[in-house]
Amino acid sequence: MRRAGLKIKLTRRQFAVAVAGAAAVVGCHGGRGGTWEFLSDAHACTLAALCDQIIPADDFPSASQAGAVNYIDRQLARHYQKHQSAYREGLDAADQISRQHFGTGFANASADQRFQIALALEKEHRAFFDLVRQHTMESYYGSPRHGGNRDAVSWRMLGLDEPPLRGRAQYDLRNGNGA
Amino acid sequence: MKRVNAVVIGAGAAGGIVAKELATGGLTVVLLERGKWYTPADCRKDDLRNQRTTMLGNAFGPDDAGNPRVWVDNQGTAHLALPSDGSYQNNAACVGGGTLSYGAQAWRYMPQDFKMRSTYGAPSGSSLEDWPISYDDLEPFYDKAEHEIGVSGDYSGTPFHGPRRRDLPMPPLPPNREFAILEPAAKRLGLHPFHLPMLRNTVAYNGRGPCMRCRWCCGFACEVDAKNGSQNTVIPSALNTGNCELRTECMVKEILVDDHGRARGVAYFDERGHLREQPSDIVIVSSAAIESARLLLNSRSHLFPNGLGNRYDQVGRHLQGHHYTGAIGYFDFDTYDDLGPGASIAVMDYNHGTPGLCGGGMLANEFIRLPIHMVDRLPQGTPRWGLAHKQAMRQWHKRSIVIMGPTQQIPSASGRVTIDPGVLDKWALPVARFEGNVHPHTFEIGDIQAKRAQAWLKEAGAIDTSLMAWHPEGVSAGQHQAGTCRMGDDPRGSVVDRNCKIHDVDNVFVIDGSVHVTNGGFNPVLTIMAIAYHASASLLSNWKGTAFRS
């Protein structure tokens, strides 16, 4: 298991916790084909943890489980190139807050610690937090074609037709009532 | 290049009509469009990249690369705006212009909308003015637009519209669930709800089929080509005359003027970026309020050092759009049936007649309900993120109704388009720059409109409501942009005369929303179309064989 950028020496117990924590954060290691287009693996893990504070798992998947990091990484290499430096600096800041208060990177902090870090980010790095919030929402509630909303999970959660035959479901095509 | 009678710049709502009318009248026409020609097959139904929700860009132009604008804030600081930013005030860049992807509400302005100053007086700091033409002057052309382009709806529920010579050519769609919820509530409030008019086939019309009632309408091209724009009506008709040639991906650089102060044609960059000249007898600018003003201001010569038609510093002033406000209602039952086109019911009771307010606006239920829009439309007190936000999305997405409307903007001379001294686009042409603000009385009206929308939702049974009222900095223009080449009888206070001819120049016309003196409390496109028919008729009646005589 590759843990690029993590320079904390782990005890056996800490390592076990870290692995469990990382396992909860799905999809932070390599995009499709094993490499991210923009993010480093370490940044991807941090971002996944942050996205999952914004949309946690319940009966339906969390943001990262639905592909939030994939969406954001892809857009940072395309339409959101203008936000690249904001992400670099913001994700570093998130890890820095985490190390400062809890002695470990954001992705390895406990669930309660991650929530505290997200609150601190929202307060102290509002512009960055709002950017991640916006992009996480886009990934989760937007079209799956952009790399998030895996299997249209949010649309199914909202009770919308999937596949999106929106507006056509009311036709009973068997009776020839189609448009 | 072979000389033609007319060059029309911009293949949108107005340009398409002008090209068709002139070509049908026997003139040779070149129609220039900076964008591409899309078809129903280009309808992607992409909720993050379309003409209204532009996080990932505009589907129908312009691209973010190479098409900047500039806006200036209240501290005088200039900011770069890209087409996917709200501050860009984008409409579209394609054949059909905004009409390819619009929601297609087909409103006539009311008779009072043409006489705003004499009805209300001009608020301090405003440039509220009467039009030089009346509703009655435009009525035949409204009628022509409704029948030729194709409008459905039913005005019988409202007494507030101006006189009409006949009914709309197509009936409304059957009511969706929101209509059924909102109609009785409006009647209980003493309002007059009705099926709002749409440039949309509800039955087979003009050789194309009816709406299939998907809700992917406003911001998208129509997958079944049931939405009527210039790209599937007048532009094909213009081409069928044999007198009109459409050239796409052609960006006009300037209107060329001879030593006698008459236009002799245009210089433009073709689809390969080569600079070309198209000589013509007349030039018609139909590029929508922002780009039309920009082209005139960029057309400088020794006779017109400040731009064409700009002798009295009027080009670009009075920029206006609509100030949208409204409310969201939350219900304890499902309100959402996913039955398009969404917007279905409206009231005109609040457009005029409130003491203390200069006008008002129409109110209607909203078009599209994309999940991404709901993210920031949850009840007040909902956390912005976390589990509670996710669960609120689940709770309210299908149990909410939005009512909003376009508050008629009070224009001011300081809200304007100028040319930025430093920023160039990909053709090295100076870009549009926005200065000024929305007149504050507009916000006073908008705030009251929001409360009216809220009252309607409460009457309909909403258990909670949120107001959508805001006072944004900067100009308002966007898809409803208008006013930059004001129509008037006084050359010192306007740019074009009542027939859309530039006061300064005998053979240059501006025919689009730029000429609107005021912009009504309604979506403007049917008025833009009516103006195009009106100006074309006047132009043809003055056309004497090979030259225009004013």
Produce the secondary structure layout:
The complex is a heterodimer of chains A (179) and B (550).
Chain A: H1 12-24, H2 41-54, H3 68-76, H4 84-102, H5 111-124, H6 126-141, H7 153-157
Chain B: E1 4-9, H1 13-24, E2 29-32, E3 69-72, E4 78-81, H2 116-120, H3 135-150, E5 152-154, H4 177-188, E6 194-198, H5 234-240, E7 244-247, E8 251-257, E9 263-269, E10 275-285, H6 288-298, E11 322-330, E12 345-347, E13 363-365, H7 371-374, H8 387-396, E14 400-408, E15 416-424, E16 430-435, H9 440-459, E17 464-468, E18 508-510, H10 525-541, E19 543-544, E20 547-548
Parallel strand pairs in B: 1-2, 1-10, 2-7, 3-16, 10-18
Antiparallel strand pairs in B: 3-4, 5-6, 6-12, 8-9, 9-10, 11-14, 11-17, 12-13, 13-14, 15-16, 19-20
Helix pairs in contact in B: 1-5, 1-10, 3-10
Q: Any overview of this molecule?
A:
The complex is a heterodimer of chains A (179) and B (550). Chain A has 179 residues and is mainly α. Chain A has one domain. Chain A is 50% helix and 0% strand. With 550 residues, chain B is of the alpha+beta class. Chain B has a single domain, classed as FAD/NAD(P)-binding domain (3-Layer(bba) Sandwich), CATH 3.50.50.60. Chain B is built from ten helices and 20 strands. In chain B, a hairpin with a 2-residue loop joins strand 19 and strand 20. Chain B is globular. Chain B starts with a strand and ends with a strand. Classes of the chains: A mainly alpha (179), B alpha+beta (550). Chains A and B meet through helix 6 and helix 7 of A and helix 7 and helix 8 of B.
